[in-house]
Amino acid sequence: QVRLQESGSGLVKPSQTLAVTCAVSGASITSPGYSWGWIRQPPGKGLEWISYSYLGDTTYFNPSVESRVTVSVDRSKNQFSLTLTSVTAADTAVYYCVREAESTDRAFDVWGQGTMVAVSS
Amino acid sequence: QSALTQPRSVSGSPGQSVTISCTGTSGDIGGYEYVSWYRQYPGRAPKVIIYEVTKRPSGVPDRFSASKSGNTASLTISGLQIEDEADYYCCSYAGSYSWVFGGGTTVTVL
Fold first, then answer.
1. CA-to-CA distance for A37 and A48, rounded, in angstroms?
2. N or C: which end of chain A has fewer CB atoms below 10 A?
3. Distance, CA of B56 to CA of B60 (rounded, Å)
């Protein structure tokens, strides 16, 4: 059974960098047929797709954050991380890591429980 | 990328049917057969209940059905049950490995 576990900065000051990590168990993040991503949800609001990564190297980003976001992969730990620079209060959200599988093409079939990151001075 | 448009809320009595609409553009819903729907309980992560417009993952009751016509997708919950009370989000692939979500619809069981 695939399990995703996020961990994150918790509280970040405005203009600083947010970092969240997703530890994957039950599947390899470099296996063909699976892709991995990040989705966030501001408090009381809807979902926003952030990133999509395939085979641990190619990554695509939402244009709304593309200039500030980086995704890195640690193959040895089977985990991937999101960093978001120059954060503002608008980046306050629950950050979910997700999996997209060929069996549910273009849908996110596994979600982590989410990690809350608040941007505040 | 603009968010897909969903009604803020819908409601129904137990046993009734409710339908949630999700309107996008030819660049997302209208252009691809990759609409998915997610159910989210308060404080919990979303869970996929529909993928590829009409398909249900294993374990999702057949009370949940979905369709698409042009730039609008719809999710219907038949035989409404108390446990269906939740937030529902539509999502569409928008090309070039990007996705767009709807704003979410709260389903209330009266």
1. 11
2. N
3. 6
Nearest to B72 by CA among B31, B18, B11: B31
Cβ proximity of B87 and B6 under 8 Å: no
* Chain B nearest C-alpha distance from A63 (Å): 8
Give me the phi and psi of B30, to 5 degrees please.
-70, -20
Supply A88's token pair.
């503002």
Compute the radius of gyration of chain A from its Cα atoms: 14
- CB spacing of A49 vs B98 below 8 angstroms: yes
The residue type at A107: A
Given an 8 Å threshold on Cβ–Cβ distance, is A104 in contact with B89?
A: no
Nearest by CB to residue B100, choosing from A49, A104, A107, is A49
Contact residues on chain A for B97, CB-CB shorter than 8 A: 52, 54, 60
Q: Token digits for B40?
A: 């989210």
Residue B6, both tokens:
């969903």
| The token pair that represents A86 in the structure block | 């120059």
List of residues 6+ apart from A19 with CB closer than 8 A: A8, A9, A81, A82, A83, A84
Structure confidence by residue, pLDDT tens digits, B37-59: 999 999 999 999 999 999 999 99
Q: Cα separation of A89 and A98, whole Å?
A: 23
**pLDDT tens string A59-113:** 999 999 999 999 999 999 999 999 999 999 999 999 999 999 888 889 999 999 9
DSSP state, B56? Answer: -
Q: Which structure tokens are listed for B75?
A: 């999710």
